[in-house]
Design goal:
CATH class of the largest domain: Mainly Alpha
Largest sheet: 3 strands, antiparallel
CATH superfamily of the largest domain: Winged helix-like DNA-binding domain superfamily/Winged helix DNA-binding domain
Number of helices: 7
Strand order of the largest sheet: 1-3-2
CATH architecture of the largest domain: Orthogonal Bundle
Structural class: mainly alpha
Low-confidence stretches: 179-186
Number of domains: 2
Length: 186
């Protein structure tokens, strides 16, 4: 899979848990990624059609008594590989970070702490490398220097956020105390 600057492969991630009807898939995307990705149903079906052409998903028709057959979307092994390749990419630049990173973060969190840790380490390294490369470049004009300084500040803010998030994600959530007070019935 070529590097993607779109959260579209997230659709494959929702299908990893099992087959879904298109409407249910759209509900999952809206409920879980709506804060970072606005996806219309018609747009989603166009993406899914392309993914079926690529062999990443297939449609399984399930008969239902007294109702029309239900078309379920199922992830193929090629689709799993495409999703994994997307997950192993790092976001570069603010736009990719703003949308793609958070879509990937959703699935990294769902995969558990070790996967989340590895995902964050990879992103921190990629962002640090991008920052260092930008710092080492010599802008060829005053305006280019202004733009470079702005980009460096953005990348530094992203690195700061990633570091804080990584620290917080490594810390287990506080345990809830069980309420041991027993209510007496009168």
């Amino acid at each position: 899979m070529k590097p993607s600057i779109s959260p579209e492969p997230a659709l494959l991630g929702f299908l990893r848990q099992g087959p879904l009807h298109g409407y249910d898939l759209h509900k999952q995307v809206v409920a879980n990624l709506g804060a970072v990705w606005r996806l219309g149903q018609s747009q989603m079906y166009a993406i899914l059609k392309e993914y079926e052409t690529r062999g990443w998903i297939k449609t399984v028709v399930t008969p239902q008594p007294d109702r029309p057959a239900r078309k379920m979307l199922q992830l193929t092994p090629a689709g799993k590989r495409a999703f994994d390749a997307w997950m192993n990419q790092s976001a570069h630049g603010l736009r990719e970070f703003r949308v793609d990173f958070f879509a990937r973060l959703y699935f990294a969190r769902a995969a558990g702490r070790p996967a989340l840790r590895a995902f964050l380490n990879q992103q921190i390294k990629a962002t640090q490398d991008e920052y260092n490369k930008l710092r080492a470049a010599e802008p060829d004009s005053e305006f280019a220097r202004v733009v470079s300084n702005f980009r460096q500040a953005q990348l530094q803010a992203i690195l700061d956020w990633l570091t804080v998030y990584q620290t917080n994600a490594a810390t287990p959530p506080p345990r809830r105390l069980k309420n041991k007070v027993k209510h007496k019935l009168k």
